[in-house]
Specification:
With 406 residues, this protein is of the alpha+beta class. The chain contains twelve helices and eight strands. It has two domains: 1-368, no CATH class; 370-406, no CATH class.
């Protein structure tokens, strides 16, 4: 899929230049507005500096920023052995040069994302809610999807776009808030320069329009490109697992999520496997959506009855979408391989809500360093890392247990 990787790189460059242009236009109009006539070039100079700094930050520290904003914590295999096993399994299947680092986000909403600069320093992050709600086949489908973002070279694009989009939103917000706090009147610009009052008002109006529309334009550009990448990651993911129902079932559960992902925002929303920001009064398929409709993705996956090659996904995609759009590059279609669908490996029993909540709580405690040990009576005692006593009294039988953490 070298052609796909090259196409993704070209789109990343286009996004880089387009968002840079939006920043420069913002700089020009903000300079003219706050510094008066002739302040535009200085505003452009500042915007170019901001653009350059953000580009360097995105490239060298973007993933760290995204993980910090998401409140994600790196974990060891002891915290969730099954998760580590699946990530290792999918990394080997994808022929990654290095197994990604694994992070867990302590939130109840089920979701996941991948980030990093390149496959050699990539990261896979999942929420505690995802781990508590999905069985092994479903979790494998989600991890395969995220690993596919890594092998398709999507992660740098998504990390960079998230940082740049956040900067455009912040600069626009600063301008708009500064304007209203400063009085919100166009009359104060009439006397800024002799005979140039009307010009200043026109520039001010353009600045206001751009400040409002720039974040929207940047988001539409970002989302239009990222939606297609979700389809491609689905196609690549099921090729790794050879089991489309695993990802389809996971997406179905994620679509029924009733919790908000508090650590997500507009800048990072496009990185997740499903849109983490709940919409009200709008359809999930509208232009402002970070992702294609989940129902459509599920239909495509469940329509793959004869194989999981890229050509199979393309055929079902065109049938469901009722168009002839080429989603998969020619290099992925010309040599069709018969890759059969495997049967489900393990049919895990569905957890009750109480069991799901208990599992979620255990995962969160594990991530936060709690020490688990079993009393003779069968009770599992969970000791917080701040508990310094050498012994713990069992709440059921009263037996004194040694706190192995100390």
């Amino acid at each position: 899929m070298w052609e796909l990787i090259q196409a993704n790189r070209r789109k990343s460059i286009i996004l880089f230049l387009a968002m840079g242009l939006i920043l420069i236009l913002l700089g020009f109009f903000l300079g003219e507005t706050f510094l008066g006539q002739g302040g535009g070039p200085f505003g452009i100079f500042i915007a170019v500096i901001i653009w350059s700094i953000l580009s360097l930050v995105s490239y060298f520290a973007g993933s760290s920023i995204i993980l910090s904003l998401s409140n994600a914590k790196e974990v060891t295999k002891d915290v969730h052995p099954q998760l580590f096993n699946i990530v290792e399994e999918m990394s080997i299947a994808a022929n990654l040069p290095k197994i990604p680092k694994i992070y867990i986000v302590n939130e109840q909403a089920p979701n996941a994302f991948a980030t990093g600069r390149k496959p050699e320093d990539s990261v896979v992050a999942v929420t505690a809610g995802l781990l508590s709600q999905l069985n092994r086949d479903e979790l494998q489908g989600v991890i395969a999807h995220e690993i596919s973002h890594i092998i398709n070279r999507d992660i740098l694009f998504m990390t960079f776009a998230g940082i740049m989009l956040g900067a455009i939103v912040i600069i626009s917000e600063v301008f708009l808030r500064g304007y209203w706090i400063g009085g919100g009147s166009l009359n104060r610009y009439k006397n800024k320069s002799s005979g140039g009052g009307n010009e200043q008002i026109i520039i001010m109006v353009f600045a206001m329009i751009l400040a409002i529309s720039a974040p929207i334009l940047a988001q539409l550009l970002y989302f239009a490109i990222s939606r297609k990448r979700e389809y491609l990651a689905d196609a690549s993911g099921v090729r790794l697992t050879r089991y489309p129902e695993g990802l389809a079932s996971a997406l179905e559960k994620l679509s029924q999520n009733r919790f908000n992902l508090n650590s997500a925002n507009k800048a990072t929303a496009g990185m997740y496997i499903v849109n983490p920001i709940k919409k009200t009064g709008m359809q999930i398929s509208d232009l402002s959506s970070t992702h294609p409709p989940i129902s459509e993705r599920i239909k495509i996956l469940r329509g793959m009855m004869h194989g999981v090659d890229f050509a199979d996904y393309q055929t079902v995609y065109n049938k469901i979408k009722n168009n002839s759009e080429k989603l998969i590059p020619d290099s992925g279609l010309k040599n069709k391989i018969d890759i059969p669908i495997v049967t489900q490996i393990k049919d895990a029993a569905k957890l009750t809500k109480k069991e799901e909540q208990r599992k979620l709580g255990d995962i969160v405690m594990n991530v936060n360093g709690y020490n688990f040990f079993n009393c003779k009576c069968g009770v599992t005692i969970k000791v917080p890392p701040t508990f310094k006593s050498k012994s713990v009294k069992c709440p059921r039988c009263g037996e004194i247990n040694i706190n192995s953490a100390n």
